[in-house]
């Protein structure tokens, strides 16, 4: 293997610092060009000169190393994977080499030695070369395998943290190392690779195992009551033991009920530590005794002290351990354990600490408690900050503060009819919130379900009186308001409201103090409610009655029966006739749809105008006539012409007449002409003339069945009311069988019935894209016709066989009952309830991934809506569902809020180095602590002002326990953190010195020399921007010709 020198930033900086003058030197001190760049020795140079030149190069300049290295690997013939000598430089071997170059970024060149071994020259960055080497060994060289057995407990040290050690070992030895899984009992590690790599990997693994053989772990069980004597006050004794023995001793904290003490370290160190621990234990077991004393449960916390410091102080002063019963125990017995002559002093200390605090109670009405606590506990926090030694329950020192608070607060109650409560609150609480903010008071309005008339106002005395006055004024104003019900037919409601509410907006703008409420369309109610000041309500009522009177006057309807075939003539060409009648009579004229069987034309407007319009429509009908002309059916097609050319020209020429030919193949000779009398006669003449032209013989002859012609027989016109031949069915056979067949055929004739169904249910019966009505038609084998929406008819037609109609009618009525029941249930489910909750509690109520709020929604079968980000009322939570379920859900949320309000938050300082360890992989550790102590933990985000600040939130007693546990974990983990930092200090690369030197020297002025060739002669100064004269370090190396000739792949 061969390599070239690598230039590092460090060596370059040292080289530069040796050539550049220090700050403050004069220009004469600058090096000359020959000093900075000494010439290479010539062959004839004297030994002294050579020695002197060599010294000049080596005295100041250290060897430069290139960032690109070159290594040569040899693969013997017997270990080559591809041995086909005819395919050297091509085939699979060449493809593998190209793939390795793409994957690693290194440059490969292959050549064959005389012994047919393969030589591979690899160039590139160090890490790229190492990766390429591993790929070459695994893909171009045959693999061998071996196993090495080491103790199972040493496997994790071979793997290393996150598998880093194993990866490094595989890269270093160019092998593949397989370690059995933890649940596998085997201790055999399998290695695959080249023979040389196998030996190296085996050696490295055995070295790691040998190092771990020197370490040991010992577990000693010591009674929990003797742990304080082993740790000493403030853990001093256990610290001294660890310093003396060099072993690590882990004693479980007081909050963890474990007796096992774990000692780790070198075998000799562990043995020494175990001996010391057992010695202390035996001594204390023999020399200590106990006494039990009764101390009030409420005073235990003063004996314990903040974070257990008082217990540690007593242990430090007297050498006596004080055992306090758990907080969940009702016992008041405190046990003192220690040497007999020290117990008296310790007992005095315990009583002194227990009685060092006094409790005073302050009498304050319950409604004042939240003012004393303040928003988010601000008032209470301010008092405790001013008096840091005060612990809540409070001392008599706070009496003056609370008395002042009581004197500054007042309350009053007013009686207001519950029907006015929602108007006092206003839409979205706008009225009551304004009063609260303006007068700095709290107003409690009872909920609707309490049906209470008492409204309570609390706050500053002056603000209370002002708020009371304003609320009473609002109530008086509302009592003077009047509510009036107007009877307006529901059919006029939509017209009064107007498109998008435009017309009703004009009315409301005209009477801004009046509230106008229309009933829901589904209720089919005619009552419109007006509410507001008495005079304004009366004016608005008269105005709306006037609007309704005009609508009634203009809403007179008249139906005119006109033969269906004449509707087109009533409309006129391009709608000219009907449009003219509408404009001249100021009426609305509606004609039935073309596919409808109705012949009624509906005229709407004032009565007189409707009468005029009817007369004009009947006049048009009277002017129209209908005649029939007999023309042989064989001539019909020729009279119609190509695409109706002939008949269309006649209809256009005769002013809008309509010519109807019978169906082709029916054999009917009658042609119907409809239209104005004069135009119909004209069209008849033209049609007959055209028929005469099409007939070959000049006179029409009637051909009989026997083939004889009877010129004297003229075909009589057929009775128009007689049934058509195509509609007649002839049945022949025995009489009784014919009658039965007639009855059977009549049973197959469809029958139509009408069913009364409320108009508002039609769309539900039709269903999405007609799915509902199609299903019913398929199920009952009938046709169901729903009237068009503009007709607003309650009649639904069912057409089908008589024996199917009854079932279809029952099915339709059953569906109506279901829909009506759904409407009633939907109305009950739409009950809404709002609850006011501080937005800070919203995430807690929602829970992790919505777990808590989903449980409440599922349990009570309600919909709970939280406010949007841009919503004005961020504290309003809306609950929708059945009334009793919505109330139950509200109570559940309120219970959660009450529980959250009892919680406190406390900040503690935890070394940021142990945060990740406490949080654990994917938060497993922190979730375990939060579940165990029922608290919430918040660690600082990156870039926080205080990276060590951790917030613990929960019930006071649980917060204290969680803080003790966290501090114990910090104490346990900090030693590991310090140890890791020490290791990193030795493994960290020594970088950054050049940057530091640059900062101290300030901005560079460049490299300056004296007596350069370009200053004294005619030589040109080098171009500093030229990459050829001054190539960049680390730039790609130009491809050079290989000593083995051009590449063959």
TrEMBL record:
CDD domains: KH-I_Vigilin_rpt1, KH-I_Vigilin_rpt13, KH-I_Vigilin_rpt14, KH-I_Vigilin_rpt15, KH-I_Vigilin_rpt2, KH-I_Vigilin_rpt3, KH-I_Vigilin_rpt4, KH-I_Vigilin_rpt6. It comes from Cyclopterus lumpus. GO terms for biological process: cholesterol metabolic process; lipid transport. SMART domains: KH. This is Vigilin. Keywords: Acetylation, Cholesterol metabolism, Cytoplasm, HDL, Lipid metabolism, Lipid transport, Nucleus, Phosphoprotein, Repeat, RNA-binding, Steroid metabolism, Sterol metabolism, Transport. It is found in: Cytoplasm; Nucleus. Residues 1-11 have a biased composition (Polar residues). Residues 12-23 have a biased composition (Basic and acidic residues). The keyword Acetylation applies. Appears to play a role in cell sterol metabolism. It may function to protect cells from over-accumulation of cholesterol. It comes from the Eukaryota. Residues 1-56, 1013-1049 are annotated as: Disordered. Residues 142-210, 214-282, 287-355, 408-476, 480-549, 554-622, 623-692, 749-817, 829-898, 902-971 form the K Homology domain. PROSITE patterns: KH_TYPE_1 (PS50084). Its main location: cytoplasm. GO terms for molecular function: mRNA binding. One of its GO terms (cellular component) is high-density lipoprotein particle. The gene is hdlbpa. InterPro entries: KH_dom, KH_dom_type_1, KH_dom_type_1_sf, KH_Vigilin_N. Pfam families: KH_1, KH_Vigilin. SUPFAM superfamilies: Eukaryotic type KH-domain (KH-domain type I).
């Amino acid at each position: 293997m061969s390599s070239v020198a690598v230039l590092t930033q460090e060596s370059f900086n040292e080289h530069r610092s040796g050539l550049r003058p220090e700050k403050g030197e004069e220009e004469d001190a600058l090096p000359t060009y020959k000093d900075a760049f000494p010439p290479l020795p010539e062959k004839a140079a004297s030994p002294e000169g050579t020695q002197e030149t060599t010294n000049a190069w080596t005295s100041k300049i250290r060897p430069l190393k290139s960032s690109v290295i070159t290594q040569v690997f040899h693969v013997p013939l017997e270990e080559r994977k591809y041995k086909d000598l005819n395919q050297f430089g091509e085939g699979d071997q060449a493809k593998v080499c190209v793939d390795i170059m793409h994957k690693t970024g290194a440059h490969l060149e292959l050549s064959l030695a005389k012994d047919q071994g393969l030589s591979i020259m690899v160039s590139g960055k160090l890490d790229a070369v190492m990766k390429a080497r591993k790929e070459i060994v695994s893909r171009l060289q045959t693999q061998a395998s071996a196993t090495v057995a080491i103790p199972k407990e040493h496997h994790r040290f071979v793997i290393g943290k996150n598998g880093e050690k194993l990866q490094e070992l595989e890269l270093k030895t160019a092998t593949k190392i397989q370690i059995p899984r933890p649940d596998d009992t085997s201790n055999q590690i399998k290695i695959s690779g080249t023979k040389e790599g196998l030996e190296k990997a085996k050696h490295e693994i055995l070295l790691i195992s040998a190092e771990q053989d020197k370490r040991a772990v010992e577990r000693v069980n010591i009674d929990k009551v003797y742990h304080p004597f082993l740790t000493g006050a403030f853990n001093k004794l256990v610290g001294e033991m660890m310093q003396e023995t060099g072993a690590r001793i882990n004693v479980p904290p007081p909050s963890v009920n474990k007796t096992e003490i774990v000692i780790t370290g070198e075998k000799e160190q562990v043995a020494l530590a175990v001996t010391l621990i057992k010695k202390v234990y035996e001594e204390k077991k023999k020399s200590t005794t106990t006494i039990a004393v009764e101390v009030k449960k409420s005073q235990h916390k003063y004996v314990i002290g903040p974070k257990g410091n008082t217990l540690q102080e007593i242990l430090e002063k007297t050498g006596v351990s004080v055992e306090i019963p758990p907080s969940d125990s009702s016992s008041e017995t405190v046990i003192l354990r220690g040497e007999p002559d020290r117990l008296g002093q310790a007992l005095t200390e315990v009583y002194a600490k227990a009685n060092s605090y006094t409790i005073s109670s302050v009498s304050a009405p319950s409604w004042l408690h939240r003012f004393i606590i303040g928003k988010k506990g601000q008032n209470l926090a301010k008092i405790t900050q001013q008096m840091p030694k005060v612990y809540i329950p409070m001392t008599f020192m706070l009496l003056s503060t609370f008395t002042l608070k009581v004197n500054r607060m007042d309350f009053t109650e007013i009686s207001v009819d519950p029907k006015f409560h929602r108007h006092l609150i206003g839409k979205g609480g706008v009225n009551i919130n304004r009063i609260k903010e303006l007068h700095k008071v709290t107003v409690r309005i009872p909920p609707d379900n309490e049906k209470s008339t008492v409204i309570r106002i609390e706050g500053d005395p002056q603000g209370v009186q002002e708020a009371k006055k304003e609320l009473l004024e609002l109530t008086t104003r509302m009592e003077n308001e009047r509510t009036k019900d107007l009877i307006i037919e529901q059919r006029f409601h939509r017209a009064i409201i107007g498109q998008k509410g435009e017309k009703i907006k004009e009315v409301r703008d005209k009477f801004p103090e009046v509230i106008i409420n229309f009933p829901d369309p589904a209720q089919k109610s005619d009552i419109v409610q007006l509410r507001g000041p008495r005079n304004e309500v009366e004016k608005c009522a008269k105005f709306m009655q006037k609007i309704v009177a005009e609508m009634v006057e203009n809403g007179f309807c008249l139906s005119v029966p006109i033969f269906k075939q004449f509707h087109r003539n009533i409309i006129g060409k391009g709608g000219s006739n009907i449009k003219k009648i509408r404009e001249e009579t100021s009426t609305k004229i509606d004609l039935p749809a073309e596919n409808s069987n109705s012949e009624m034309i509906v005229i709407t407007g004032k009565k007189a105008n409707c009468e005029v319009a009817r007369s004009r429509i009947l006049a048009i009908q009277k002017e129209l006539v209908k005649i029939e002309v007999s023309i042989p059916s064989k001539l019909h097609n020729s009279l119609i012409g190509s695409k109706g050319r002939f008949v269309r020209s006649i209809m256009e020429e005769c002013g809008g007449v309509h010519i109807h030919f019978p169906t082709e193949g029916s054999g009917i000779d009658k042609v119907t002409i409809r239209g104005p009398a004069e135009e119909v006669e004209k069209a008849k003449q033209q049609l007959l003339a055209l028929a005469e032209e099409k007939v070959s013989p000049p006179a029409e002859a009637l051909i009989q069945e026997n083939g004889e012609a009877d010129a004297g027989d003229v075909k009589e016109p057929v009775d128009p009311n007689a049934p058509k031949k195509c509609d007649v069915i002839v049945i022949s056979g025995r009489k009784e069988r014919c009658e039965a067949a007639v009855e059977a055929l009549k049973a197959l004739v469809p029958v139509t019935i009408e069913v009364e169904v409320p108009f508002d249910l039609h769309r539900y019966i039709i269903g999405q894209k007609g799915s509902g009505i199609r299903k019913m038609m398929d199920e009952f084998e009938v046709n169901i016709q729903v009237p068009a929406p503009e007709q607003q008819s309650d009649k639904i037609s069912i057409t089908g066989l008589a024996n199917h109609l009854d079932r279809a009618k029952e099915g339709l009525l059953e569906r109506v009952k279901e829909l009506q029941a759904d409407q009633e249930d939907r109305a009950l489910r739409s009950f809404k309830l709002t609850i006011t909750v501080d937005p800070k509690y919203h995430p807690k109520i929602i829970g992790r991934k919505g777990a808590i709020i989903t449980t409440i929604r599922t349990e009570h079968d309600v919909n709970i809506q939280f406010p949007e980000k841009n919503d004005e009322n961020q504290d309003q939570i809306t609950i929708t569902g059945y009334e009793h379920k919505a109330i139950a859900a509200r109570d559940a949320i309120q219970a959660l809020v009450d529980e959250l309000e009892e919680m406190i938050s406390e900040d503690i300082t935890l070394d940021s180095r142990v945060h990740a360890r406490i949080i654990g992989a994917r938060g497993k550790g922190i979730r375990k602590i939060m579940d165990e102590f029922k608290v919430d933990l918040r660690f600082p985000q990156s870039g926080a002002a205080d990276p060590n600040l951790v917030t613990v939130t929960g019930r006071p007693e649980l917060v204290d326990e969680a803080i003790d546990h966290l501090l114990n974990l910090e104490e346990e983990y900090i030693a590991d953190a310090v140890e890791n930092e020490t290791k990193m200090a030795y493994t960290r690369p020594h970088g950054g010195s050049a940057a530091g030197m640059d900062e101290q020297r300030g901005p560079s002025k460049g490299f300056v020399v004296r007596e350069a060739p370009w200053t004294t002669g005619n030589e040109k100064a080098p171009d500093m921007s030229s990459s050829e004269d001054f190539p960049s370090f680390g730039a790609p190396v130009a491809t050079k010709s290989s000593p083995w000739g051009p590449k063959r792949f």
